[in-house]
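Step 1: inspect the first sequence and its C-alpha cells.
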Amino acid sequence: MEYKNRSYTFLILVIVIIGTLLRFYDFPSWSFSNDELSALQRTQFGSFEELINKGVIVDGHPPVAQVFIYYWIKLFGASEFALRTPFAIFSVISIYLSYLLGRSWFNRGTGLLLSGTMAVLYFPLVYGVIARPYSLGLMTCIGSAYLWNENRKEIVPWFKRFGFILLASISIQTHYFAALLIGLLLLYGVMTAPKKQTLRNLSNLFYIFLLCTPTIPIFLKQFSKKGLSWLAPPNIDFIFDHLFLINNKSLLFIFVLILFLILGLISKKNQINKKNLFLCLYLTIFHFSIGFLYSIYVQPVLQSSVLLFSLPFYFLGIFCCFPQSKLKIILALALIITLSITSNLFHNNYHVINHFGTFKELVKKNKEWGIKIGRENITYVEHINNPFYFEFYKKQFKDNSHPVISKIENQQDLLTLKETIKSIETDYVVFSWSSVATNPEIYDIIMDKFSVIEDQETFFNSQTTLFKKGASRNALHNSTYEAELNQLKNWTVNNTCQDTLYLFKGEKSEKLDSTNQFSSTFNIQLAKLNTAADKMYISCSAMGYFTTECKATLVIEYFNEQEQKEWYGVDIENYVTTPYKWSKIYASRAIPKNCVLSDLVKVYIWNRGKNEFYFDNLEVNFYSRENILF
C-alpha cells in the first residue's frame, strides 16, 4: 500500500511539473489581450472607491479579480510576466486540486486522469495564464467542490469546513458563472444531505452569504444591465463548437475518450459511484443550459470561456467510468498527455501564435515602418476598443505616434474617416485594429486614395496594414453602371429612372422618387466569377445627390430560387449628408458562408423614403479576401 501511494504521489508530481512547464514557458512574450488591457486600464484610479465605481461596476464581473490586479501591480508592476504569474500559479494549483477532487469524489485513478487532462488541454492552458478571472475562478471552484464533498462526511476538521466557506465565497465573487456553479452545488447539497447535516449545511450557507454581503450592491447594479449588449445570442452551432474546443479541437482525442467510456462500461470489475456521476452530469448540463437559455431569452452572456468552471466535471463524468487498473490508468494518462501536447504543438500552435487579439506586435511593426519610411510620411488610423491599449505598448517602444482616428464603430465614424482620408497629405497610411469587428468598408474608404498595400502583418483577430498612394487596385470582377448605356452586361436597367438634371459623370444619372423606388439592378451568379466564394468579398460604391431629404439604402442581397439568404443595406444618408453636393457611398460585405456557386447576388438602391434622390456611377467590385480579415 505504501509503494502504491508513493507511485501515485510520483505521478501527480510529474503531472504538475508538466502543467507548470507548459504554462510558464515563454508566456510573458505574448501581448496582453484586449481583456487584460481593459483590466489594466481600469486600475488607473487613486482610491478604492473609484476602483469599484469606475473599474468594477462598469466591467460586468464581480470585484475579486479586479481588486487583486489593482493591488498586485502596485507591488510588482504591470509587465506581462509580473501580472500573469499569479494567474499561472492559480492554474497550476488547479491541476493538483483536480487530483484531490477526482480522488475524493471517485478514486485515485480518476483523480490522476482528471489532473493530467487539466494539465495539458488547450482550453485550460490558454485561459490559465491570462490575467483575468478564469484561472482564479477555476481554482476556487475545484477547491470548493473537493471540500464540499469532504464536508459531507460525519466528522469534518474545522480547516476543511473553513476552507470550503472561504473558497466558495471567493468563487462567487470572482465570476458569475463560477457563482452559478457553486450555487448549483449548494442546491444539490441542501436537497440531498442527510437530516443530521442540515444545521451544518445551513450554517455554511449563512457564512458564505455573510462573506458575499459587501458585493451585493455591485451585483445589483451589474445585473440591472442583464447581460452583454455587444454579444450575439448563441445558436445550435455553439454547442458543437464548444464541445470541439474542450476536447482539444481534436477528433482523435474525442475518439480516445469514447474508447475510455466503452472500456469502463464493459468492465465487470468497475464500480462507479453513481450518485457522484449523476452530480457531474447535473453540474455540466445545468451550468451550460442556464447560460444558454438566459442568453437566448434574456440577454447574451454565454461564451466558451465562462464554461471553463464546469470543465472538470465533464471529464470527471467520463474518467470515473474508466477501469481502475493501475497499468491501464498509466497508459491512459500517457496517451492523454501525448495526444494533447502533440495537438497543442502542431495543430493548436499553443506556443507559436497569440490566441487573442494582439497589440504589442502591431505597435512594434508600426514603429518599424516609421523608422524605415519616416514617421512624418505616415498618417495613423486605429480601430480598437480603447486608445489606452496601444498607448500602453507605445510607451514601452518609445513610440510617440498619434492616430487621427482611434475607433471606427458606426456609420458616423465611417463618414469621419471618409472626410479625414480626403484631407491626408502624407504618402502613407497605417491602419491597425485588434479584437474588434472591422467593417470592410474601412478598407474601401482608405484604398480610394491609398490603393497600394505596401506591407501587412496579420495575427489572430488583429492586423496592421501599410497603405501607399498608387494606381487603382485590381478587382476579380468589376462592373460599373452608366445610365447613358442602356445595354449593360449583368444589369437590369430601369429606363424610367434616367435623368439629365443633376449629373456627376457622363450625360445621364438616375433619379429615384415616389414613383420609382428601385434603381437599375446588378445581378450575377457567383459561379460566373470563377473564384471560390470564401476567397472574395463584394465592394459597392455610388455617387449620391439630394435636394431636400435623403432616405435611401444601398442594398446587397444574396438569394437562390427558393429563398433570400442574406440582405445587407447601408443607409445612404450616413454618407450623403449635404444637399446639392455629390458624395460617395460605400457598402461592402463578405460572401455569406451559406452561399454556394449557384446562388445569385443582387445590388441596387432602394429609395425607402420616396424622396427625390439622384445617383450615378453605381460600381460593383469583387475583391480578393487575401489581405482583409472578416
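Step 2: inspect the second sequence and its C-alpha cells, then contrast the two.
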Amino acid sequence: MYQNASKERLKILDGLRFLAVGSVVLYHVYPGNFPGGYIGVDIFFLISGFIIYLKYSEKLLDRDVSFRSFFVRRVRRLLPAYLVFIVITSLLAFAFLPPSILKNYAEVLVSNGIYLQNHVLFAQGDYFFEPQSRALLHTWSLAVEEQFYLIFPLFIILLRRFRSVELALILLLILGSALLAIQFSSISSRLVFYTLPFRAWEFGVGFLAAYIYRRDLVKKAARPVAEVCGLSGIIMISFSVFGFTETAVFPGPHSFLALTGTFLLCIFQNRLSGSVWLPITNNLSQHFGHISYSWYLWHWPFISFYYIYTGSQPQGLAAAGILILGYLAGALSYQYVERISRPSLIIHNGKKAASSVLLFGALTLSIGLFFIKTNGAVFRYDPAKIPYVIAQSSDVGERCGFVRRIIMFGSSVCQRAYGSSGMPILLIGDSHSNMLRPLLTQMANEADRPLYVTTDIWRPTQMGNMLCTEAYWQQLRRDIAKLKISSVVIIARWPIDFTQDDYEIAIARLSDLGLDIFLLQSLPESEAFSPTSSSSSIYGDVRSRQEVYATYNRQSYLNDRTSQILAFENMGNRDNITILWTADVMCPVQSCLFAKDGAVIYMDDDHLSEAGAKLLRPSLEPIFE
C-alpha cells in the first residue's frame, strides 16, 4: 500500500524545517547557548532528500513529470527570493564593506551564479577573514542543495534501469557517501564539510525515509513503540543542538544522532499522537517553518554587517535586535516574494526558467567582477589613501581551487607550475607561503620546473596536530614519492621564541625522504607595517615616493629574531638545508621598508601585500639554481 503525499503539505515537514533553520539561526546569534545548532543544516539536507524523493521520484520514474518540469519548479521555488536577497545584500555591501572584505564578498558572489560558492568558501579558508565577516558564508549549504537537485535526475535515470533494486541503490548511496566522508575527514575535514560528495548520504537518508513512509512499512509497529521512537527523535535532535560544539568532527556522533532522530520522526509521523507533535505542529512552529527559506537567507547578513562594523559578536540587546531583524526580513521576503512568485506565470516553462537562471548568473557575475576589478571599489576613498587600501585588499587567490583539487582528487597537494625539464618542487607553509605562491609559481615557470603546493596551510611545527594529522602526513609522503619531488620550500611565520627543537621532527621526516630543504627567514613584523588609517597619517602620500621607511628598524628585527637566526644558521650547516635570508631585502638600511615605488608592501602587520611579495625574488633565487 502506497501513501500519496505528493499533493499534500505535511505539517511535520514544516515543523522540522522550523527545528532545522531555527537551530542554525540561534546558533549564529547565540553560539554559546546553542553550541550544536549548526546541525540544523544536516537536518535540512535530510528533509530536502525526503521531500524531493516523496514528491517526485515516482512521477519522474513513471514519466508523469518531466525533468524539465522538475527543474522549472525548483527554479520557481528558490530563485526569486534568492535574487532579491542577493541584490539588496550587494547594495548594502557596496555601501558599508571595506575594500578587502568587499573583494572577498565578490569572489563568493561570482560563484553564486553557478552555485559553486561552497567550493570558493572552502578554498578561501578562514585565516584572513573571520567567518562573521562573510555576508554570503551561509549560502554554501544552498549550493550543496542545488548541486543535489542537478544530480537527482541522474539517480532517477539509474532507477529506471534498475527499479527492482531501488532500496539497494538508496542504501548504496548512503553507505558510499558516508564511508567516503569518514575516510576523507582525516585528510581534509573542510573539504568533507563543504562539498556534496561527502554530504550526499544525508540526502540519501531522506530518500530512505521517503521510501519507508510511502510504503507505510512501519504501520505494524505498536503505537507505544511509535511514540517512543517519535519522542526519541525529538530528544536526539535536542541533544545534538545542546550537547555538542562546533569543534565536533563531521561526520561524527552529532550528525548521526540528529539525522537518526529526524529519520524516526519522518517515518513514524502518521503513528504519533498530537501530544508528541504539538511542539512542532502548532501554529507558531508552522509559521516559522513556512518562512524558513527566506529566514535562513536573511538572518546571517545582519550578523555579518554588525561584526564588520563593531569587530565583535552581537550580545544582549544587539543580539536580540539582530534576531528580530532577520526574522522580519525573512517574513517580508516570504510574504511579498515567495508567495507571489510560486504560483506566478513569470517562470512557467523551461525557457523562462533557463532565462531566469542565466539572468541571475549574469547579474552576480557582473556585480562580482565590478567589485573585484575595482579592488573592492577603492574609488570610494581619498586618492592619497588608495595605496593603503589596495595593500589591505591584497588577494592572491585560492591556494589550489576546485579544478586543481578535482584533477588531483585525494591528493594532499595540487600543481601550480607545469615545467618539464627540472625536478619538482613542493611548497609547504601557512598563510605566508600562500602570499608568496604567485611569485614562486612565476619563477618555477621561468625555470621550467613543476611546482606543487600542499592543499592545506600548516607549519611544520604543527605536524601531528589537527592541522597536519598523521593521516595527512602519510598521504603527503606518498605524494612526494609518486611525484618524484626533490625539493621542499618551507615558508611560515615562526614564533619569536623559536628554537631548533620546534622544527626538528619535521626536518627529520623530510630529510629522510631525501629532499633538499629551503627555509625562508621570517619577515619583520610590527604594527608599524599595518596599512591602517593611522599609518596613513604617519607616512603620508606614498604614491610618488621611491622608498618609504617604517618606524620599525633593522636592529629591532634582528633582536626579535635572534633565537630563530641562531637556529637557522645551525640548520643551514647541513648539506640538504639552505636558508633563504630576507633581512637585507626587507631592511636594506637601518630602517625597514614600509612602501616602495608608490606601493605599500604589507597588507597587515606581518603579511606582505602583492607588491611586497615581489620584492623577495632575490631571496628565492637559490631554490632554482
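Step 3: confirm your contrast with the notes below.
The chain has a mean pLDDT of 88. Strands lie at 413-418, 425-429, 450-454, 487-491, 516-520, 547-553, 577-580, 591-596, 599-600.
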